[in-house]
Structures are given as structure tokens and as C-alpha cells.
Amino acid sequence: MSTKSMTNQDNFAPNRVAVIGGGAAGMMAALTAAENGATVTLYERMGRLGRKLRITGKGRCNVTNDCDTNEFLANVMTNPRFLYTALDRFSTADTKDFFERNGVPLKTERGRRVFPVSDKAADIVAALADACHRAGVRVVYERVRSLWLEDGVLLGVETAQGKCEADAVIVCTGGKSYPLTGSDGDGYTLAGQVGHTVTPLTPSLVPITAKGSLCPELQGLSLENVRLTVVSLASGKTVFEDFGEMMFTHFGLTGPLVLSASAHIHDIAPGKYEAHIDLKPALDEKTLDARVLSDFDKYRNKDFLNALGDLLPQKLIPVMVRESGIDGRTKVHTVTREQRKALVTTLKCLRVPLVGFRPIEEAIVTSGGVSVREVNPKTMQSKCMPGLFFAGEVLDVDAYTGGFNLQIAFSTGYVAGESAAFYEKE
Ligand SMILES: Cc1cc2nc3c(=O)[nH]c(=O)nc-3n(C[C@H](O)[C@H](O)[C@H](O)COP(=O)(O)OP(=O)(O)OC[C@H]3O[C@@H](n4cnc5c(N)ncnc54)[C@H](O)[C@@H]3O)c2cc1C
User: Is the CB of residue 248 below 6 angstroms from any atom belonging to ligand 1?
Assistant: First the structure.
């Protein structure tokens, strides 16, 4: 890229930078460009900034992850090496510092996940929006319909109101998931205008559909402190195993554990994978058997169906009775050792056959996007069109849960904003 000197800018008129998309990446890009002397217009198609940011982390916003670069990159599923420079320029520590300096105290929770102390994602949005405002970013609530190109030269952007000139344009339109937040895939069309390759778009961090009546029966039931293992039926290999929280829905499984698991399953199809849920991961089979025995002793004259209340949530009891193969009306004192063993086995491994993913619209992130081979990782500038930059989820990079995806948006947004401010037309 040809850049204006980053130290001696006085001889240059400020660059006019158009930023498309007022999400995490767009606000960071706009702010950084403005702080580096550019005249910035931020285009946001929704009536307010940061619609998706507001719902992140269940409204609490897991804003970054307090880990070093190597650990960070190990949590990036697609194209981690592309992010090396961006994370160096604007690190997880920089993100923390930015929000703390802008009046949002942060706290670090399990897995080094960083949240605002207030538990309010809206505070994160307000900090970014206020910083943009103070830096002089002009926000225009309009949808950018296309890039303004003439004779193969980028002149600016086009909205329903007409053409708007810019020296540099940064596309921060996000992915294709949760389209009601405004991110419905416009950026891929804009990239396509100048010949960029868009790699196949697939859902990642997405709920999983399951076969059979078990999930509909248990819909609404949320389980904390369970172990979820996903096993490939062909190879018998475990593709995912972790401990945490999950939920049953009418279509299958969701919740943090399940979303994380989805990112590890690459070729989901009916008959290929099974979820094994360990309902009592803290107890090994022997200890669990002793626990069941003690409950059976307490309820020895009751029906089996009425003897599991101390061990399981009510909704789960009829299902576990059925899955264990024991008649619910069997008197507890007549349950045999083998039957008890079958119950313990089911408690340690409730099997759910997996079928597929829910659609991309329900995914936390979009996997795939503008090919990183066609974007300079040091500047985020397009290799197809001078003056065009990309940042955030529109790029073909995505990570696991834990604050990594927002950090990617901030780091790439920062680099794109800085580069666009100093971009010099040839
Ligand atoms: C429910 C949910 C929870 C999440 N929780 C977390 C979390 O806790 N931590 C984490 O790290 N990640 C989380 N993520 C992922 C994270 O939100 C995204 O990776 C991140 O927001 C991507 O930032 P972005 O700026 O690239 O895109 P977005 O935040 O999607 O912003 C894109 C913006 O561009 C605008 N736009 C699109 N097209 C146009 C156009 N043509 N003209 C003008 N404006 C346009 C959109 O309206 C939108 O405001 C979550 C995602 C979801 C859906």
C-alpha cells in the first residue's frame, strides 16, 4: 500500500474515510481513522449503532479474552495467522485499556472471559459511540447500496440518497447471522463488486438439531454442570468434550456447551454424530451407584418413577426411567442390581443422535467470508481494489466462544481505521 507518512501528516489534506457498518469493527475503525486525522463518515443501516453488540454475551458482552497472542490464535478456527499483525497492533490488553479509559470498568470471569463490571453490553456500545462522537465521526443512518466505482477506481459509496465521495472505504458489515441486527450479508455483495472471492458461508457456534422425541419432551430444560461429549459414530472418536451448561429445545440442543461443540463438527449429517450427556460428571460410576442405592433405600417402598426426585429435575425423570428400560411402576425394593446399573449407565451417558445445524441466521458467527488471501494482513487493504479495506466478521476469520470474535473485530477495525487514515491515492 502507498501510505501517507504516519509522522509527518501536516502537508496532506485529511483523508475522507467512509466506514460501512456501525458494529464493533466499524465503530473501532471509524474512531481510529478519526483519531488519526481523517474526516470520517460512518454509515449504519439500522436506526442505532451496535445492534448486535447489545445482545452479545446474553446482554452482558464478553468483550475480549484476557490471554496472550498464542493462546488467542489457538482459539481462532479459521485463518488464525492472518490476525497476527492486527493482534499485535491492537491486543486484548489494548481492548481492556480502551474500555477502562472510556469509563467502563471490566472484570474477568472463568476462562479469562472479560465482561463489563455492570454486566451491560449497552455500556460497551455507549463507550464506543461516545468515543466516535468525541473524535468527530459523522454518523449517517443509511444503508450503503454499493461501492461507487468509475473506470475501475473507487470513488466512494452509494446510498439511496446518492453518491458520497471518499478517499478510502472500510467495509465492516459483519456476517450473515442474526439478520435482524442489520448484518445480513451486504458486505459480501460489496466485496463481489470489485471481484473479491467470498469463501462458502456456513453457520458456526450454532444450535444443533437432533433425532427422536427426547429433545421435544425435554424442551425448555436447562442443565448446568453437565459434561457433553460429541462422538463420531464412524470412527468412535471424540470430537468435542467439555463441562458446562446446555439446554433442550423443540428441535434439539443449544446453550454455551452446544454452541462450542458445533464449531468442532465439520461434516454434520444424520447418523454421523451422537451427543453423550453425563448428567453427574462429578461422580464416577461407583460413587453414583452408591448415591442411587442410598436414594433407593430412602424410597424403598415407592414406585421407581417416584424415587429419582433427589437426583434429577422433575422434567428429566420420565425420560430417564424410559431410557433406563425399567418399568416406572416397579417397586424400588425390587429393582435388581443390573437394572440399577442400567440407570447409572444412562445417567452417565444420555445419548442424543445429532442430525444437523440450525440455519446460519441462528448462528453466533458466520464462518467463511471475504478471502483473506486477497486482503493485506498488515493494513486490511483489499488486494483487488486500492483504497478499499475490510474489518470484522465480513472477513473469512472466526473463533470459538470466549470474547475472541469481538477482539477480532476490534483488532482488524483498528488496523483498517489507521491504514485508511493514512492511505494515499496513487
Ligand atoms: C447472540 C450473539 C451473541 C454474541 N456474543 C458474543 C460475545 O459475547 N463475545 C464475542 O466475542 N462475540 C460474540 N458474538 C459475535 C460478535 O457479536 C460478532 O462477531 C461481532 O459483532 C462482529 O462485529 P462486526 O462489526 O464485524 O459486525 P456486526 O457487529 O454484525 O456489525 C455490522 C454492522 O454493519 C451494519 N450494516 C450491514 N450492512 C450495511 C450496509 N449495507 N450499510 C450500512 N450498514 C450496514 C449492520 O447493521 C451492523 O450494525 C455474538 C453474536 C451473537 C449473534
Answer: no
Determine whether domain 16-202+367-422 maps to CATH 3.50.50.60. Answer: yes
Residue 50 · residue 23 · CB < 8 Å: yes
Give 315's contacts (C-beta < 8 A, 6+ positions apart): 218, 220, 221
* Class (C level, CATH) for 207-357: mainly alpha
Taking a C-beta distance cutoff of 8 angstroms, is the pair 390, 191 a contact? yes
Dihedrals phi, psi of 21, to nearest 5 degrees: 110, 115
Per-residue pLDDT tens digits for 79-123: 999 999 999 999 999 999 999 999 999 999 999 999 999 999 999
Distance CA 129, CA 124 (A): 9
In terms of Cα–Cα distance, which of 421, 397, 389 is closest to 83? 397
In this predicted model, what pLDDT tens digit does every residue of 234-268 receive, in sequence order? 999 999 999 999 999 999 999 999 999 999 998 99
By most ligand atoms within 8 Å of CB, the mutation choice from 144, 364, 389, 411 for ligand 1 is: 364
- pTM of whole model > 0.90? yes
* Residue 176 CA to ligand 1 centre (angstroms): 9
